[in-house]
Structures are given as structure tokens and as C-alpha cells.
Amino acid sequence: MSSTGTGTQPPPHVIEAARSPVMASAIAGRTKVLPILELALLIAASIAPLVLRDYITVYATRVLILCLFALSFDLVWGYAGILSLGQSLFFGTAGYGVALLSRDFGVASIFAVLPAGTLIGFVAALLLAGFLLLGRHPSSVVFVSLGTMTGAYAADRLARGSHYLGGQNGIPSIPPMTIGSHELSEGPGFYYLVLAILVLIYLLSRFLLRSQFGLALAGLRENEQRIAFFGYNVQHLKAIIFAISGAIAGASGSLYAFHEGFVWTNMLGVVMSTQVVLYVLFGGSGTLIGAVIGTAIVEGLSFWLSDNYRDIWPIILGVLLLLVILFRPLGLISLVLGERERVGHFGPSLKEKRNAAP
Amino acid sequence: MDTLLIATFEILSFGAIVVLVVLGLGIIASMMGIFNFAQGEFVLLGAYVTYLMHSVGLPVPLGMLAAPVAVGTLGFVLEKLVVRRFYAAPIVAMLGTYALGLIIREAVRGLTGGLYLSVPEPISGSITIGSLHFAAWRGVIVIITLLVMAASHALLAYTSFGLRVRASLENPQLARASGISTGMIYSVTFAFGAALAGLAGALIVPVFSLFADLGIRFLIQGFVAVMVGGVGSFAGPVAGASVIGTFSAWLPWLMSPVIADVLVFVLAIIFIKFRPQGLVSGRGVNR
Known about the structure:
The complex is a heterodimer of chains A (358) and B (287). Helix content of chain A is 70%, strand content 2%. Chain A contains 15 helices and two strands. A two-stranded antiparallel ribbon of chain A has the order 1-2. Chain A is globular and about 55 Å long. By secondary structure, chain B is mainly α. Chain B contains eleven helices and two strands, in the order ααααββααααααα. Chain B has a two-stranded antiparallel sheet. The N and C termini of chain B lie far apart (38 Å). Classes of the chains: A mainly alpha (358), B mainly alpha (287). Chain B: Keywords: Amino-acid transport, Cell membrane, Membrane, Transmembrane, Transmembrane helix, Transport. Chain B: One of its GO terms (cellular component) is plasma membrane. Chain B: This is Branched-chain amino acid transport system permease protein.
């Protein structure tokens, strides 16, 4: 790829994509940046509760749960190129689902509520994908984004109007989640549980995306038509990843409900689903770690800034987002990570093959 | 009979509001291929300018005249600075304009202090025909909507500016080769769409009052209307807006408002699913 083409002016994101591997390879050299970054973050996250004060640990737990949520959006937008503006639908539905389970049926065991939340998210996403993505006509990106956004808006409105779901106030005072007879309240214990779940799901997603399936998804993002010509069923691929991401959003939604102790309509609505778009765009879509970094940065900044600059913080956030979209379409992660590492690969790398050859 | 007439008027005036909001969105989407997520915030800004003029003691109609000018100017500047970078990537454009909208919305939220502020109707009272009373201001909105619609159509269909806009839409390269400055045309078209949104905001602020999330409500409605009507033509968004506006005003007479609100959108999405090209599947402006 070269950016020296003359004549027609390539759009900015093409220039960006062409330029970044050169820059990044200068930094990266022969070593891969991605695994180092992932390991460094994992270590930082593991020791964080030991050095942070308790109330910050509670806040950090929420950030980790939101990281999980961001991961789910990154899977659909960063990999398959599906702009889901209704990701909160699965997050919130699962949250409400587990809240009802604990309120009406007294079920709060983690072994029941977490799978239940995941299942709710999965089924909701599968149904929505079945309608929006499958069918005779291939759906345009605009249609899918509009459809998902409408889904989130509708769920928000219906929850607000429903007495059973607590209307405007949501469902307050959900009892704490239990493991066996142990009650899990916010603090380091909850933090490490969420971290373990996040790492597990991260690794599963990473494994999934570094397979042939993941390569096909990345191809879908770059050039959908070509993937279709290769004989893949594009719509099925999209529906599968959409449902998987719904399941992850469901898991994070149920964790969120128990961590906060209540659910309210904002969890379902457009506000929450645009929040997750912010995280992923900030950090960098198409790399799982980008979603995590983006969430951590946005939430971290908002933690420090919203105390002192409560009024102008959302404006600052908007300006930062605009700048990132304009000048770093691949997110902050593209400062250190090359385009090549964004695309997954599987099997032995070229270099290993070359070394193995006599 | 009387309730029927009243209901018809209600539906008509609400439909007119939706058409007014959607017109600018539809022109930008059809003529430039950009789905402007900041359009709802342009409506909000129009409403805010009107409120601002009113709060410093100027007459409300003057504020309503100033709103489209101010918002149109802002649209022009934003197109030059930001939006034009997005033409090659419509999806990025959605996200970029969303960020713009976020900035405007939060700025207005900061300026209004998150309150609901009201602006009086410039023409208050009601028109009485026989035993029926109609809110005068809503009647004015209907009339202005019809005028704006006719004027926009005339501008695009019969003037040399409209010809250049249509040429840039049909074939940008050929238009450039023929000496049309497509960059300028895009800027002016975007500013025009923004000005229409500003006018819509100015006209509806007495009805809805001013609050920071005013735009979001119209954004989804506007997008659904444009998609239902069909992107690419002038008539499409107008037709879509009429349909959505009519249903949004009519269904609450039959069922609870919450269900009606959701049902309109769900029905619209189902319609788009099975007819992606929308009601009007043409391109350009019919003369």
C-alpha cells in the first residue's frame, strides 16, 4: 500500500490507513505491540485494587463492566462493520431480566443470573438480527443502524410506560449477587470477579477472531461484496456475530444491574448505546484492546473532570470525539498499533514458515 | 363531526411540523448522501436562538427570522470545517455529525441550565369557525410549512442554483468539468438544510418549549421518515414525513400514547425492511 498515488485525492481514512503501518512498524520493529499491550493492561488491572482507594475500586469495577459492554459493540462494528446503535437494548434487557429474576423469584445466585442474562441478550440479539439482517434484500448499513436505534428507543419508551418495570424509576434495591452462601457486595471481590469474566470473554473473543471466522468478519468490514464473492453467506456471518455480541452485552448488563443495585430506563435507551459507540471509537475499533482502552480513558477522564468541570465535560467529550474521528479514524490505538495487527490471522505466520523451510 | 374536524386539524398541524423538520434532513440526505445526525440539534439551536432573542426583549417573530439565518451560517461553517471531510465515507459522516450534535446539545444544555424554557406564541388565541376553535399558531405553522415546501421545491426545480445542485447530485465529476464549483454547492446545500432545521426549531418552540433533548425526539422521527419516503428525491422525504406525521398524530387517538409512539416506528421499520427504496423510488427533483 502506498499513499503516493496522484490524480484523485483518496479520502482521509484511506490515507490514514496507508500511513499508519509505516509509522507503527517503526515503533514496533520486529516485536508485536498487541500482546505486550494486552499483558501490560492485564497486570495494571490486576494490581489496581491493591493501590487504589475503595471508592475508586468500586468505580473501576463499573468501568470493567462497561469494558465488557464495549467489547460487544467492537465485535459488531469493529469487525463485521455492522453499525449497531441499539447495543444498549441487549445490555438493558438483560439487566431488567435479572432484576426481575431477583425481585420476583428471589434468584440471585451468580450461576443462575449470569447465564440467564447472557441468554436474554443472545436471544434478543438473535431475534433482532433475524429481522434486520436476514431476508431477501441485503440490508444497508443505514437501515441496520436505524433499526437498532429504534429498537433501543422503543424499549426505553415501553419500560418508562410500564408499571411492572417500575416506570421512570426503574427497579431499585436489587439484592446482592451470591456465590453459594457468600454475598457479593461491591469492592475488591466484585472487582476481581468482573476482571476474571472480562479476561475470559476477551480471550474467547480473541480466539474466535483469530480464526478463519474472524478473518471473514474483518473482510466483511473492509469489503463486503468481495467476501460474498468468495462464497461466504454474508448475512449468516453477520447474524452470528450480532447474536454473540448480544450475549456479551447481556452478560455485562446483568453484572451492571447487580453492581449498581438497581436498573433504570437509561440502561436501555439511546444514551447508553451512543455511550458505547464513543468508547469504541475513542480507543479504536477493530482491535479488542482498543475498546477496553477507550472505555478506560473516557470513563477515567470523566471521573476526574466531571468533579471540577461538570457542565462542560460533555462538550469536551464531544470535541475530543470529533477530533479523533477527523484525525484518527482508527482510534487512539492506531498511534501505537499498525493496520496489519488489526486484521486477524490464523495458522503459522509467514516468518515461521520461512524459518521452518530448509 | 366536530371532533373529527378538530382531530383532522390536530393531525394536519402535527404532520406539518414533522414535514418541516424532515425537509432539511431529506434535502441533505438526498442531495449529498449524508445522514446528518446533527440535524436534530440544528432544530434545537433554532429554538434556542428564538428563545435568546425573546429573553433579551426583542419580539419573537424577529427571533424566528434570525434563527434560520444563524443556524444556516453555522451549517455553512461546519460544512467547510468538518463535514466535507466525510463525503468519501458516509458511515464516518454519521459518527462525525453525531459528535457535532453532541457538542451543540451539551452546549445548549449548559446554557439553558437543563431547564424547560417557554417562548410565547407570536400569534396567540384561536380562530373560531362556527362552533370550532383552532389554535391560531398551529394554523400559521401549517401555512408556513406549505410555503416553505413550495419555495424549496421551486428553488431546486426552477432556478439555476437548483439546476447546479441537481447536476452535482447526478454526476459530480461532469458537474465539475462543466465549471460548477461542487464544493461550494455542497456547502450552500448543507447550509440550506441547516437553515430549514433552524426555521423548524424556531416555529415549534412555542408549542414544545425549549429543552436540551428537543432534537433527539425529532432525529429518530426524521430518519425514519426519510427512509420511509425514500432517499434521493425531493418528494420522498416529504411523503415519508407526511405519513409518519399523520400516524404519530392519529394513533394516540386510538391507543395509549406510549404504545402509539413505539408502534409508529416499528411499523415504519417493517415497511422499510420490505420496501428498502421507500415510497418514492425516484431520483432528483420532479418538475
